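Input.
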Amino acid sequence: MRNALLTLSAFVACLSLVGAEDAIPIQLERPFKSGDAYVVSGSAVSIQMQKVTSEGKDQESEATYRRMVFEGRVEVQAVTPEGNAEKATCTIEKCLLAEAEGQEPKETLPKGMKLIVTRSDAGVALSIDGGGEIPPAAHDLIELFLPVHDQRTDGNNDLIYGTTQPRKTGESWQIDTTRAAAALGKAMRGIPIDPAKIQGMTVVKGVEEAGGIRCAEILAELSVTDIPVGGPPNFQVVKGEVRATLSGRFPVDVALRPLDRKASMRFEGSFSGKGPDGKPVVIDTMFDQVQEVTYTPAK
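Output.
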């Protein structure tokens, strides 16, 4: 009987420990310091499609596909008071690009080439140290791997997706739809976004040890409907929707940078009107972008 009581006591003690997990601080933005250096590696895929249909028959369609595999050493040289990178360099270890689905990515910029990225009120400038041209098909994908995000103009992820309250595994909260609308509207070149059309949630999926670092696994999701995106003249908007996700492993020690990050965004639009021959026409558009990145301290 005594052994049974001891076993029951131990079981109850374990249950109390499970329920007593400490709430952890949630911080998605990690300010840079001048001199910070790290290795970034990962991949990004961008797909754009457009299809024209008349009387139920496909009239024309076009699609572009790009996939980049990237690795490089980033060194931050100047920062704003908020910790945004104003200037950084990236020495390429690998920069491969495929422009057709199923195609093996090929070198588009050579190993050892140094890129310079600067951020100002005018926007982002990306150049090659010593001169040269970055292939247009690679330019915007390369930017996805570099520290070009500016929370002053691009939106502060902590204010949009985060919370000021420490949270436990499984806890979730609503995103700030007003700030999300402002950031998304700017990203879509000034299109007004109604906060009431936005739904979004952030959740702590779990806490884990990775390389001796205690991390929170965080997932944020956002969806927007009824976006008044512009279409061809005299065409009506039938559909304008965005779905986006942001996830990653964020060290509980907020002085450390995220270990990895995955971001996705998909836009779908549809417009109806009449073609030159007066027949009903439907134009469907789609943009889909997915990025997966890992960050490791530079040696």
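Residues 1-20 have pLDDT under 50 and may be disordered.
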